[in-house]
Amino acid sequence: xxxxxxxxxxxxxxxxxxxxxxxxxxxxxxxxxxxxxxxxxxxxxxxxxxxxxxxxxxxxxxxxxxxxxxxxxxxxxxxxxxxxxxxxxxxxxxxxxxxxxxxxxxxxxxxxxxxxxxxxxxxxxxxxxxxxxxxxxxxxxxxxxxxxxxxxxxxxxxxxxxxxxxxxxxxxxxxxxxxxxxxxxxxxxxxxxxxxxxxxxxxxxxxxxxxxxxxxxxxxxxxxxxxxxxxxxxxxxxxxxxxxxxxxxxxxxxxxxxxxxxxxxxxxxxxxxxxxxxxxxxxxxxxxxxxxxxxxxxxxxxxxxxxxxxxxxxxxxxxxxxxxxxxxxxxxxxxxxxxxxxxxxxxxxxxxxxxxxxxxxxxxxxxxxxxxxxxxxxxxxxxxxxxxxxxxxxxxxxxxxxxxxxxxxxxxxxxxxxxxxxxxxxxxxxxxxxxxxxxxxxxxxxxxxxxxxxxxxxxxxxxxxxxxxxxxxxxxxxxxxxxxxxxxxxxxxxxxxxxxxxxxxxxxxxxxxxxxxxxxxxxxxxxxxxxxxxxxxxxxxxxxxxxxxxxxxxxxxxxxxxxxxxxxxxxxxxxxxxxxxxxxxxxxxxxxxxxxxxxxxxxxxxxxxxxxxxxxxxxxxxxxxxxxxxxxxxxxxxxxxxxxxxxxxxxxxxxxxxxxxxxxxxxxxxxxxxxxxxxxxxxxxxxxxxxxxxxxxxxxxxxxxxxxxxxxxxxxxxxxxxxxxxxxxxxxxxxxxxxxxxxxxxxxxxxxxxxxxxxxxxxxxxxxxxxxxxxxxxxxxxxxxxxxxxxxxxxxxxxxxxxxxxxxxxxxxxxxxxxxxxxxxxxxxxxxxxxxxxxxxxxxxxxxxxxxxxxxxxxxxxxxxxxxxxxxxxxxxxx
Amino acid sequence: xxxxxxxxxxxxxxxxxxxxxxxxxxxxxxxxxxxxxxxxxxxxxxxxxxxxxxxxxxxxxxxxxxxxxxxxxxxxxxxxxxxxxxxxxxxxxxxxxxxxxxxxxxxxxxxxxxxxxx
Lengths: 879, 118
What we know:
- The structure holds two protein chains of two kinds.
- Chain A is an alpha+beta fold.
- Chain A has five domains: 2-70, no CATH class; 73-128 and 338-474, no CATH class; 141-323, no CATH class; 482-524 and 757-879, no CATH class; 538-731, no CATH class.
- Chain A has a six-stranded mixed barrel with strand order 3-4-9-6-8-7. Chain A has a six-stranded mixed β-barrel with strand order 14-15-20-17-19-18.
- In chain A, β3 (162-176) and β4 form a beta hairpin.
- In chain A, α6 (149-158) crosses α10, α12 packs antiparallel against α13 (438-464) and α15 (483-519) packs across α24.
- Chain B is mostly helical.
- Chain B has one domain (3-115): Orthogonal Bundle (Arc Repressor Mutant, subunit A).
- A two-stranded antiparallel sheet of chain B has the order 1-2.
- In chain B, β1 and β2 form a beta hairpin.
- Chain B is globular, with a radius of gyration of 16 Å.
- Chain B starts with a helix and ends with a helix.
- The model of chain B is unreliable at 1-10 (pLDDT under 50).
- At the A-B interface, α1 and α3 of A face α3, α4 and β2 of B.
């Protein structure tokens, strides 16, 4: 400590004194030596000179003594940094290119990493989130289907593997009594849910076991946001009631913070209670899934086995139609991110490739710079700079420039994140939480340092090859022209072209897929079409008659509005996803075994729907108003089903479908028509089997009213809203938008992924171009004399071009071959993202190859042109 | 890096790491001395086996000063020259005892190995 302080004191103020003292001391030393020499009989002059010789190098004594007064590492570091900064400033263009290249590479990596961190890596915001398990049931046909109440009840009471288990589902309710009727989102949960998600109340209490009892009073726990926005943060809210779907619920608590268990924000939580049927029958499914906390030390497989044994026992004790059902369990983290994992894997890989390209570029640039600096370094070595000191200098310079680039990169990542926030698909969980937080900054810093070290190896390694004598004697061709430098630079060109080709190929495939998805025939005409999504509240729409009457009146009223061409309603519009699916079988066909019963989407369409959205009928008739309750049960099937069972869709007419298949209850309906396919799961997913029922024979309060307009559909939105209010102002609008917007939103994620990859490929092309240009340019510089001699001996422009171009062409060809091979390998990864094209699409391969050819051509053209412009006489004089 | 160090050093012994500092402490054990005197002392005591390089001696003295094992004072020498005299501090004496036993053990161990038979 004291020595340290002494150092500080010396470093701060007393160094001058120390230096003076040292001078005097050395002076005294010389005096002693001189005195002795005089005693030996030398002349004073001669004695003094001899003393100096004997003493040795005084400057070195000074330097090394000074070092012992300094903080050697820190001070010489400052010195190095100062020197490096000067070096960077001296080569401004070079430095700017390096810094920008790095900023792009590190910025892109940091942005994608922070998105990936938020979505995939960041621990779930629940206590022991890594032990949370998500449960569904699985059958031979499907996995992850909902869990019935009785099964859940047995699981939670008889399992040996879990600390706690909660049932949960999501439901929409209409809130009235607080301004206009609004649709609100409820989390319907058993009381353990709050403990599992680590939720706490700021007012009142959370649910207890008594809230789960069916006969208890209806209670509700509201979220903080709902409380402060809709309930105006009423501090006396506990004990008051809110009206949901016409029934009152007593507010018993306010959450301190929403656990964010669902992607969309939840307004409030209701206790999950079984219906009478669910409490008595083991196959009465609702929408419930199960969340459970694994005991420490128990593996997921063990827990699964535990519950499966339970299910087997239940099948024996309480046999039913679902005896083959087993549990389906996944860690919650898996369940959350399974779909987007491969997207992020792809993005992260591409962005890493971009970074590698950036590194290669910087390495190449440094290599070239080293050769131009070779003389400088040779001189430094000659006047006494040691190898390690030189290396330190070069490393400091590279590290400094990398840090600047990395800092700028982090800044760019910040902007990138803003862009991701604005453009990113809303259905990726937690993407909006991406930020430049500590782990991300650590990642970025680590990345920067890694890049800095890797890049600084290049100049150090090549400086090791510097040969003093050759360098000082020769001029421009020197260390860099050595064999190793040559191979390194060739490798750079090859790898840059290869990486660019892979990224071009990947983005090309995705671009083609996006194009295919955007231009796919959706099966109907989305232009001039408005979609009004409604869900009738159970009160007053209790009876089937009242629901049918509401939609009849609404549609009739809409049809009278000017600008409306036709109106039809459907339960599940195209691209809305899986609204409902179930088993089916054909009555006229042999009975299938339990495992072979096929699934189909179930939909409801009224008389005008097909005409309004213009889904062509391939055979038979559309549904009509005459297909009322009590009339013969009929349905329209889609082409997909028809083609599965009959060669000619017309043969399907008059045949019968048993809904639910041979083993489930369900009506038998007659096929009266076959409609063309629509992309029910989204534009980029192929059509699935689908059955349309007439509304009167399968009543549902949730319908989407499709309105074909003569003019711009957006201008009709206000009219539609007005018409709805005139029929019933208490019906909340779930959504009201054009069919185009509806369809497009199914492609948001694809567009986003494609956009990013195209961006990365673009960056890759630019980087590869710059890198190749640098290398080619350097070659020509190195060969000026050789070329001049050839010219002097009579070589024409063509001959020069051929000679110098051959090398570029050869490296380009090798790079292209490597790139195409890499693309072939990469295409396996892409399979799940490809739509409408082959993963080995020849057009994309050719385009990528062409692009690579252009990169080489463009980047080589200027250097080659320079080669032809060499003036042999002048150049040879230089030498 | 430097000219002196890299010159072929005849067959003078090279100083082991840390040895010079111990020898300086030893040279100051009986009386204070200046830098020239110290180098003379070491050269004579080692029968000129050690040739002390000023480029090493001066920084070593600085290091010892910083550790407060020696102190420095300007005095007039017997022949009338002013010189900077170094002397051992209490800490320096302790350090000398410690280092002496360490180096003796080191030398003994070296000798045992080098002179071992077979």
